[in-house]
Amino acid sequence: MPVNKNALIRYHILDERLSNYNKYYTNDDLQESLNEKLIDLGYKPIGRTQYFKDLDFMKSEAGWSVEIEHIKDGRKKFLRYADRNFSIKKSELNKSQKEALKEAITSLSCFKGLPQFEQLEEIIPLLSDKLGISEHRNKIIFMDENPDYTGLHFITPLYNTIKSKRALAINYKPFRSEQAHSFIFHPYILKQYNKRWFVFGYNASKKAIENLALDRIQDFKESALEYIESPIDDWEEDYFYDIIGVSRDDKKTIKTIRISVSPVSAPYISTKPLHPSQKKLVKNDKGWYDFTIKVIPNYEMHSLLRGFGDDLRYIVAK
Question: Fewer CB near the terminus (10 Å): N or C of the chain?
Answer without folding.
Answer: C
